[in-house]
TrEMBL record:
InterPro entries: Acyl-CoA_Oxase/DH_mid-dom_sf (IPR046373), AcylCo_DH-like_C (IPR036250), AcylCoA_DH/oxidase_NM_dom_sf (IPR009100), HpaB/PvcC/4-BUDH (IPR004925), HpaB/PvcC/4-BUDH_C (IPR024719), HpaB/PvcC/4-BUDH_N (IPR024674). The keyword Cell membrane does not apply. It holds the Pfam family HpaB. This is Aromatic ring hydroxylase. The keyword Flavoprotein applies. Its EC number is 1.14.14.9. Keywords: FAD, Flavoprotein, Oxidoreductase. Residues 282-478 form the HpaB/PvcC/4-BUDH C-terminal domain. Residues 5-274 form the HpaB/PvcC/4-BUDH N-terminal domain.
Length: 500
C-alpha cells in the first residue's frame, strides 16, 4: 500500500551517498540527527503520521485511480472540488500538530500542475511528457515519497530574460543532451524542506520566449543524486535548536529553506516532463501559483489558531482575559484568521476541471489570488494584536536555563508569575511558543513572499477582473447605455490556462 509511516520516512532519508548538504558552513551526513534539521524532519514526519492518526486519517489519505489504492493525500491528484477543500482543511489541521510549515505542499502542487500541463500537451499530440509524468506519479504514490517543489531560480539581473543574463546559469538550464538524458545546471532559491526530502521536482519560474527554450525545463530527480548541493538558510531564533533545551525553542517542529544547486546533474529522459516547450512555461507558472496561493488559506489559518490560543492563555495568566479591549482584539484576530480561510475555501469550491483524466481539477484563480493577498497582510495584523496582549515580556523573557538554575530559580518563579494558578514555567512556555510562532519565517516572511510577492497577486487580479464589463453594468444603471447581455455572474476574464 502506498502509505508510509513517519518512521519509515525518517529511515528512508537517513543516509545520503551523493548529495552534499551544508548547514552553517558544515557538511551534514545525517539529516535526521542534525540538531538544525531534525525539527524539519519531525515536521515532514507529521504529514506521514497523519495518514494513520484518528483525527486526520480521513483527510490525509485518498483513493488514487492511478495506482488503484489509497495514497497519502500529499501525493494525490485533485479530482473534484471536494479534493481541493480537503487540501485546505488538512493543511489547517496539520498546523495544529506542528506549529510550523510542514513543507510538503510545494511538491504536491507541482504534481497537480504538471498533470494539467503534460495532459494539455498530450491533447495537442505531444504525449511523451504525459506518459513520463503518469509513470512518475505512480512511482511516487506507491513509494509514498516526500517531494520538494523547486520553482524559484536565483534570477540574476531581474530585468533580463534567462537567455539575456550575463550569468547564463542564473536560471536552471540544459547544458548537454545525451541519448539517455540531459545534463542540467543552475540553482533554485528558497526551496522549502529541500534537505529532508526523497525527491525534488523542478519547474520553470516564469514565462519564456523562444530564445529561452533551453531554460523551459521541468524534471524530477532523487535528492541524493551526484552533483546536487544544498545550502540551508538561516532563520529567526534558529540557534535555539542547537541548545538542547525543551522550552526556548518551542515548538520543536520547524521548517527550513535552502539553496538547491544543480552542478551538472544528469536527468534520464523518462524523468523529463517539459523541455524546450517555452510556450507552456507561463501557463505552468500560472497554474502552480494559483494552487499554491489557495493552500496558504489552510496552513496560515492553522498557525493563526495556535497564535490565538496562545494569546488567550497568556491573557488568562496575567489576569486580563475578561477585559473588553482584550476580547475585542481576540475577536479581531479570529475575524482576520477566518477571512483567510474562507477565501481559500471559495477558491476550492469554485474550482474547475481543466483537462480530462484522473486529475486536472484547478482552483478558481481569482479567489486563489485574493486568498494569498489576504495572507500577505493579515498574519502581520494577527501577530501585532497577539504581541499587544502578551506584553513586552514576549521579547525579553529570561531563558529556560535561568529558570533551571538553582541559584535564581525561586526568584524567577516568584517574579514571572501572574495569576497564582499558573506557574512561571507555564508562562515562559506559552511566551516561547507565541514568540517562535508569531515571529517565524513560516508565519510572517513566507506569508509575504511565498507563492509570489504581493505585487504578483495584484497583477493576477488585475488581469482576471473585467473592468470593461463592470463599466457596462454601471453605465446601464446610470442611464448611459443598454443593459449588457452577459451570462457571467462575476465580471471575471478567463485565465490563460482556461483559454487554452
Amino acid at each position: 500500500m502506498g502509505l508510509r509511516t513517519g518512521q519509515q520516512y525518517v529511515e528512508g532519508i537517513r543516509h545520503r551517498q551523493h548529495a552534499s548538504i551544508y548547514v552553517m558552513g558544515k557538511r551534514v551526513t545525517d539529516v535526521t540527527t542534525n540538531l538544525f534539521l531534525k525539527p524539519s524532519v519531525l515536521a515532514f514526519k507529521a504529514t506521514f503520521d497523519a495518514a494513520f492518526e484518528e483525527d486526520t486519517r480521513d483527510l490525509a489519505r485518498v483513493y488514487s485511480p492511478i495506482v488503484g489504492e489509497e495514497v497519502n493525500r500529499f501525493n494525490s491528484l485533485h479530482t473534484s472540488p471536494q479534493d481541493l477543500v480537503a487540501k485546505v482543511k488538512l493543511l489547517r489541521k496539520l498546523s495544529h500538530k506542528t506549529g510550523t510549515c510542514f513543507q510538503r505542499c510545494v511538491g504536491w502542487d507541482a504534481l497537480n500542475t504538471l498533470y494539467i500541463v503534460t495532459r494539455r500537451m498530450a491533447d495537442k499530440g505531444k504525449k511523451i511528457y504525459y506518459d513520463n509524468f503518469i509513470k512518475y506519479v505512480a512511482d511516487v504514490q506507491k513509494k509514498d515519497l516526500a517531494l520538494a517543489g523547486a520553482m524559484t531560480d536565483v534570477k540574476g539581473v531581474r530585468t533580463l530574460r534567462p537567455s539575456e543574463q550575463p550569468n547564463p546559469d542564473a536560471y536552471v538550464r540544459v547544458v548537454e543532451e545525451r541519448d539517455d538524458g540531459i545534463i542540467v545546471r543552475g540553482a533554485k532559491a528558497n526551496i522549502t524542506g529541500i534537505a529532508v526530502v526523497d525527491e525534488v521536482v523542478v519547474m520553470p519560474t516564469r514565462a519564456m520566449s523562444e530564445n529561452d527554450a533551453a531554460y523551459a525545463i521541468s524534471f524530477a530527480i532523487p535528492l541524493d543524486s551526484p552533483g546536487v548541493k544544498i545550502v540551508v538558510g538561516r532563520q529567526l531564533n534558529d540557534a535555539r535548536r542547537l541548545e538542547g533545551g525543551e522550552v526556548d525553542g518551542l515548538p520543536y517542529m520547524f521548517n527550513h529553506e535552502g539553496l538547491l544547486i544543480l552542478d551538472d546533474v544528469f536527468v534520464p529522459w523518462e524523468r523529463v516532463f517539459l523541455y524546450k516547450e517555452w510556450k507552456e512555461a507561463g501557463v505552468l507558472v500560472e497554474i502552480f501559483s494559483s494552487y499554491h496561493r489557495q493552500g496558504y488559506a489552510g496552513c496560515k489559518s492553522g498557525l493563526g489558531d495556535v497564535i490565538i490560543g496562545a494569546t488567550h492563555n497568556l491573557a488568562k495568566q496575567i489576569g486580563v482575559v475578561d477585559k473588553s479591549h482584550v476580547q475585542e482584539k481576540l475577536t479581531e484576530m479570529v475575524f482576520l484568521n477566518e477571512t483567510m480561510y474562507s477565501a481559500g475555501l471559495a477558491a476550492s469550491w469554485e474550482g474547475r476541471k481543466l483537462v480530462d483524466g484522473p486529475g486536472g481539477f484547478w482552483v478558481n484563480p481569482m479567489y486563489a489570488n485574493v486568498t494569498k493577498h489576504l495572507v500577505t497582510r493579515f498574519p502581520y495584523e494577527i501577530a501585532k494584536l497577539s504581541h499587544d496582549i502578551a506584553g513586552g515580556l514576549l521579547g525579553t523573557a529570561p531563558s529556560e536555563f535561568d529558570l533551571k538554575n538553582p541559584e535564581i530559580k525561586a526568584l524567577i518563579e516568584k517574579y514571572l508569575q501572574g495569576v497564582p494558578e499558573f506557574t512561571a514555567e507555564t508562562r515562559l512556555r506559552m511566551i516561547r511558543l507565541l514568540e517562535n510562532t508569531s515571529l517565524s519565517v513560516a508565519y510572517l516572511v513566507e506569508s509575504v513572499h511565498g507563492a509570489g510577492s504581493p505585487q504578483a497577486q495584484r497583477i493576477s487580479m488585475q488581469r482576471l477582473y473585467d473592468v470593461d464589463a463592470a463599466e457596462k453594468i454601471a453605465k446601464f444603471l446610470a442611464g448611459m447605455g443598454n443593459r449588457p447581455v452577459d451570462f457571467r455572474v462575476e465580471p471575471h476574464k478567463k485565465s490563460e490556462a482556461e483559454k487554452t
